[in-house]
Amino acid sequence: MTTIVVVGSLNMDLVVHAPRHPLPGETLIGSHFQTFPGGKGANQAVAAARLGARVCMIGRVGIDTFGDTLLAAVQYDGVDTSFVQRDLNTATGVALITLDAHGQNTIVVAPGANMQVSEADVIRAESVLRRADVLLMPLECPLEAVVAATHLARQSGVRVVLNPAPARPLPTELLAQIDYLLPNQLELQVLADGETDLLTAIRRVQQQGVRNILVTLGEEGALLAMGDQTTHVPAFQVPVVDTVAAGDAFAAAFCVALAEGKSPLEAVRWGNAAGALAVTRSGAQPSLPSRFEVMRLLEVRGE
C-alpha cells in the first residue's frame, strides 16, 4: 500500500446556501445552513484514504468541539492523526462558505490553530515523512512548515506535490524543490506576477524553478505542463451540485495514482474523475469519492 503524508489544515465548514453571492454591503436571505468537516489538508487526506492510500496527516486543531469533530471525521476514514496536535491557546479553524444556486462558492477562512503548525510539528513526524511515497501540501498553514516538510522529503527522495492554495507568492527556493505544482488559474496568475495568459503564466512560473505544473481548469479539465510539453486533459461532464473540495479530490487522486506508479497523464485522469464525482454531491468531505467510484467512472468513460 502506498503512503501519502499531508501537511495542512483542518477546518469546520459553515455553509450558507443563497440564490447568488451578495454584492459588497448587501444582505441576502439564504435558504439553509449546514456544517461539514473540511479544510484543504483534511479534505485531501480523507480523499487519498478513500482512494486506497495509507495516509498520515500533520496539522493542528484547538481543544474545542470543532476540533473533536474534525479529528473523529478523518479518523473514521482511516487517516493517521498521531501528528495532529491539539493547540491549547488557539481555536480550531473555520471556513465561511456561501454557495449559490449554480453550486459555485465563495470562501473566507479563519485559520485559527492551522496557523500554529510549526517546523517542530513537521520534524516530530520525520520518520513517517521520510518513508512516504508522496508529500502533499496546500498552503493553509505557515510557510515554514511547508518548507521544512519539503526539505525532509527531498532528502529522502519523496515526491513533493504542492497545491498553492490559498494563492500567495512563493520563494523560488521552495518552487525549485517541488516535483508537481497544482494551482488553479487564479493561483497560477498570482505566482506569475499577474500574468493572465495561461501558457505564458506557466512558462513564467517554470522559470522560477518548478518544471512540472498541473493547472486545474474547472469544467474544462486540466493542463499538464512538463518541461516544454503541455497536454490538455478534458474534464468529465457531470451535473454540478457543489464545487467545494473538488480541487482537493483532484489533488489527492493525482497523488495516489502517481504513488501507485501511474504516468503523470494517467494520474491527471484520475484527478479529473475524482473532481467530477465530488461536484455531484454537497459538502467537502461528504462529497469525496471512493476508489470504486473513481475506477467505475474511468471504466464507463473508456479510460
Structure in words:
With 303 residues, the protein is an alpha/beta fold. It has a single domain, classed as UDP-N-acetylmuramoyl-L-alanine:D-glutamate ligase, CATH 3.40.1190. Helix content is 35%, strand content 24%. The protein is built from 11 helices and 13 strands. The chain has a 6-stranded parallel beta sheet with strand order 5-4-1-8-9-10, sandwiched between helices. A hairpin with a 2-residue loop joins strand 12 and strand 13. Helix 1 packs across helix 9, helix 9 runs antiparallel to helix 10 and helix 10 packs across helix 11. The chain is globular, with a radius of gyration of 18 Å. The mean pLDDT is 95.
Helical content (DSSP H or I, runs of 4+): 25-40%
Q: In CATH, what is the class?
A: Alpha Beta
The CATH topology label is UDP-N-acetylmuramoyl-L-alanine:D-glutamate ligase
Strand order of the largest sheet: 5-4-1-8-9-10
Radius of gyration: 18 Å
- Into which percentage range does the β-strand content fall? 15-25%
Give start-end ranges of low-pLDDT stretches. none
The N- and C-terminal alpha carbons lie at a distance of 23 Å
Query: Helix-strand pattern, N to C?
Result: EEEHEHEEEHHEHEHEHHEEEHHH
- State the total count of DSSP E strands: 13
